[in-house]
Write a structure and sequence with these properties.
The chain is of the alpha/beta class. It has 2 domains: 274 residues, Rossmann fold (3-Layer(aba) Sandwich); 75 residues, no CATH class. Helices cover 26% and strands 21% of the residues. It has a 10-stranded mixed β-sheet, with helices on both faces. The protein is globular and about 65 Å long.
C-alpha cells in the first residue's frame, strides 16, 4: 500500500516528481497558489502534468482543514518569512502566526487534523536557520518548538545537491518530521542524538556523512512558542543551529556534518542541449561588454538617489561559467535577454550563450520540457526553476523514508 501524500506550495511539482520516482507514494491532494500574480502559471503546469483532480489552486490560508483529505506524509517547500507569533486579544494563551505567513498554514493543518500525518518532509532556503538578523535562529526555533508540541521528532540537514553528485550547487535545508503515532518514532527515541545524525535516520541514510566527532551542542527550547518568539537567542550575533540537528521533546542537539560521497559527479557540460539553440540565447558583440562589466570585479564610487556618494566593491565571477563543474545555483531572475551578474553563460562553438529552459530543468533534474506549456514564456519557465528544488534530493529522501518504515 502506498503512503498517501499532501503536497503544499507545490510549484510545478518537484516534490511530486521525486516521490513518484521513488515509488511507494500517492499524492491525494495538492495546493499551489501564487498571491502576486493574476494568472496562476505554476498551477497550470502542475495540473497539465499531473491532472487537475485533487489539485487546489486556492490560497492555502482560505482552505479549511476538513477539505484536505487525511494523509500519511505532508510535504512542501514553504516560503522563508518572519514566523513571529503573538497572543490573541481574546485569549492570552492562544497564539496567532503573523498574518500572511505560510508556515502557520502548515501548523494549522497539523494542529487541526485529528489523524495527524505520520511524516513530514519540508524544504527551505538555508538562511532559515539564521533568520531573522535581529534574533538569529528564532524562526527555526519557533518551527521546532511548535512541531515538538505537536508530538513530532524533527531532524534537519542542510544539503548541497552537488556534494552528492547532482548537477547544481543548490544548498537547501530539508526537515523531516516523525509523529509519535508512527512506529519509526520509537526508533528515534531509543537512539543517541549523535547516532541519529551520523547513521540511524532518514537523512543519514539518504545523504551519508563522515563518521567523525560532531562537537554537538544541546539546549532546551523555552516552555512556550510565544516565549521562544520573544526571547530566543536575543542579543547574540550567531545562530546556534548548525547544518545538522535533531529536536526531541523540545531538546535540540545540533552539530556540523561533512558529506561522505565517493560516487560520480555530473558537470554543467553534461546537461547542455545538443540541438539547434535559438539565436536569442546567444550574447551579441554589442551586449558582451555589459555582461563582462556585471560579471567583473568592481571598486567604484556610486551615488544614491539623494546624491550621497559611497564606495562600492564586489569580486569577479567566473565568466563564462565553468563547464567542468556542477553549475551555480539557479535564481528566479535567470530568464530574459538582459545582461546580468547572476545568470548563467556558457561558451559553445557558436559563441557564448545563456541556458535554455530545458537545460535549467535538467539542472534541477526535472524531465525535459516539464514546464513547457502554451502561454508560458521562457522567462517564466526560468523563474519556475529558480524556485524549484532538485528532484534527485527528494527522491533519495523518499527512498530512505520507505526503507526506514519497512525495516
Amino acid at each position: 500500500m502506498k503512503l498517501k501524500v499532501c503536497e503544499l506550495f507545490a510549484g510545478v511539482g518537484g516534490f511530486r516528481l521525486g516521490l513518484e520516482k521513488a515509488g511507494g507514494y500517492e499524492v491525494v491532494w495538492s495546493n499551489q497558489w501564487e498571491p502576486s500574480t493574476k494568472t496562476q502559471h505554476a498551477s497550470q503546469v502542475y495540473a497539465a502534468r499531473f491532472g487537475s483532480q485533487n489539485h487546489s489552486n486556492t490560497d492555502i490560508e482560505q482552505v479549511a482543514t476538513d477539505e484536505i483529505p487525511n494523509h500519511d506524509l505532508l510535504v512542501g517547500g514553504f516560503p522563508c518569512q518572519d514566523y513571529s507569533v503573538a497572543t490573541t486579544l481574546k485569549n492570552s494563551k492562544g497564539l496567532l502566526g503573523k498574518k500572511g505567513v505560510l508556515w502557520w498554514s502548515i501548523h494549522r493543518i497539523l494542529s487541526e487534523k485529528k489523524k495527524k500525518p505520520k511524516y513530514l518532509i519540508l524544504e527551505n532556503v538555508d538562511r532559515l536557520l539564521k533568520s531573522p538578523s535581529s534574533q538569529r535562529g528564532r524562526d527555526f526555533a519557533i518551527m521546532l518548538k511548535s512541531l515538538s508540541d505537536l508530538d513530532y521528532v524533527i531532524e534537519w540537514r542542510v544539503i548541497n545537491a552537488a556534494e552528492y553528485g547532482m548537477p547544481q550547487r543548490r544548498r537547501r535545508v530539508f526537515i523531516i518530521g516523525i509523529h509519535k503515532s508512527s512506529a519509526l518514532y520509537s526508533k528515534y527515541m531509543n537512539e543517541k542524538p549523535e547516532d541519529i545524525l551520523l547513521r540511524k535516520s532518514v537523512l543519514a541514510n539518504s545523504f551519508p556523512v563522515q563518521k567523525v566527532a560532531l562537537n554537538l551542542s544541546s539546549f532546551l527550547l523555552d516552555d512556550s512558542v510565544l516565549s521562544v518568539s520573544e526571547n530566543f537567542n536575543k542579543y547574540k550575533k550567531l545562530s546556534p543551529f548548525l547544518n545538522s540537528g535533531i529536536c526531541i521533546k523540545g531538546i535540540v542537539t545540533t552539530g556540523k556534518t561533512t558529506p561522505n560521497y565517493g560516487g560520480s559527479a555530473k558537470m554543467l557540460s553534461e546537461i547542455l542541449e545538443n540541438g539547434v539553440i535559438p539565436n536569442d540565447y546567444f550574447i551579441s558583440d554589442v551586449d558582451l561588454p555589459k555582461w563582462e562589466y556585471l560579471k567583473g570585479g568592481k571598486k567604484e564610487v556610486r551615488k544614491t538617489k539623494e546624491g550621497y556618494k559611497y564606495n562600492y566593491s564586489e569580486g569577479s565571477m567566473v565568466f563564462p561559467d565553468a563547464l567542468d563543474k556542477p553549475s551555480r545555483t539557479i535564481i528566479t531572475g535567470e530568464g530574459g535577454k538582459s545582461p546580468s551578474r547572476f545568470k548563467h553563460v556558457v561558451q559553445t562553438k557558436k559563441g557564448m550563450r545563456r541556458l535554455t529552459p530545458v537545460e535549467l530543468e535538467r539542472l534541477n533534474m526535472f524531465p525535459d520540457n516539464h514546464t513547457k506549456l502554451e502561454g508560458i514564456s521562457d522567462t517564466k519557465r526560468a523563474f519556475f526553476m529558480g524556485n524549484a528544488l532538485v528532484v534527485g534530493v527528494v527522491e533519495r529522501i523518499a527512498d530512505s523514508l520507505l526503507e526506514e518504515i519497512v525495516v
